[in-house]
Write a sequence for this structure.
């Protein structure tokens, strides 16, 4: 399955990460846990949102760059002083600058560029005189997304179109995969998330990023199979992956495609 997206991809769907073992940090007696914090951090003139999360199971500090370079996240062991977190962040400044320099700019959807629909690049053509929102067609053999109405609403109308396509296709896939494993989803929801493509809660609620509609059809099916499999196996153990492969025989290839190309899909701006 070859990449069919129209923008450069990042190295991985979950962004970049830098780590420092907890053992390298000096301890100076008991400390209060640091609550989850959200603040801003400046890197090479860019102001990025930074989230600091304490995790009881963490044994090292982990710094991650969100997909598309739109934010930072530090996971820390319990009992760290704020100063130690700041020192770690300061030491990683050069690493951050190097990594962020490699992150592709976020392309804004506009007439004349292409975005993929089910993995097939489609040219965006604006037709202000026509009523409606978005229609699919072609011009001299080139697949086209015709966006109608006011130019100012073009990005939103394209996003709404992808959401409708996601609901129509993914809900049908969920129904089929649930029937195959004898489970039911409590609800199916659609969001625009930057950290994950899908999720399954303990009560059986499935969530998906509507951006997955830009990926090839087999990848969309894999994502749905992955989340539905969690209705039976709420983990990523051997039984889970066997079930996932039973639902989607192309699991390994689709998983690799999404990891390789997902960042570029997340980077496209529909604002």
């Amino acid at each position: 399955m070859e990449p069919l997206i129209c923008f450069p991809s990042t190295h991985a769907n979950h962004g970049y990460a830098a780590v420092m073992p907890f053992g390298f940090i000096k301890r100076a007696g008991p400390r209060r846990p640091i609550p989850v914090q959200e603040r801003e951090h400046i890197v090479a003139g860019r102001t990025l949102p930074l989230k600091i999360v304490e995790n009881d199971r963490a044994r090292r500090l982990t710094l991650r760059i969100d997909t598309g370079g739109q934010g930072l996240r530090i996971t820390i062991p319990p009992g760290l002083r704020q100063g130690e977190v700041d020192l770690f962040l300061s030491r990683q400044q050069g690493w951050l600058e190097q990594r962020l320099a490699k992150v592709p700019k976020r392309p804004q959807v506009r007439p004349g560029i292409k975005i993929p629909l089910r993995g097939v690049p489609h040219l965006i053509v604006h037709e202000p005189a026509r009523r409606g929102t978005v229609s699919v067609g072609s011009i001299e053999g080139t697949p086209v997304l015709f966006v109608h109405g006011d130019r100012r609403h073009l990005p939103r109308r394209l996003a709404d179109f992808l959401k409708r396509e996601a609901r129509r296709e993914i809900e049908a896939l969920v129904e089929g995969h649930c029937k195959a494993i004898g489970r039911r989803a409590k609800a199916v929801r659609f969001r625009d998330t930057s950290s994950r493509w899908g999720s399954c809660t303990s009560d059986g609620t499935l969530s998906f990023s509507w951006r997955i509609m830009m990926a090839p059809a087999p990848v969309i099916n894999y994502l749905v199979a992955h989340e539905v499999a969690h209705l039976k196996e709420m983990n990523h153990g051997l039984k889970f992956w066997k079930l996932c492969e039973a639902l989607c025989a192309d699991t390994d290839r689709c998983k690799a495609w999404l990891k390789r190309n997902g960042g570029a899909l997340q980077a496209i701006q529909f604002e």
Summary: The chain has two domains: 17-102, 153-267. The longest helix spans residues 154-181. Helices lie at 82-91, 93-102, 154-181, 217-229, 238-247, 251-267. Residues 153-267 form a domain with the Zincin-like fold (CATH 3.30.2010.10).
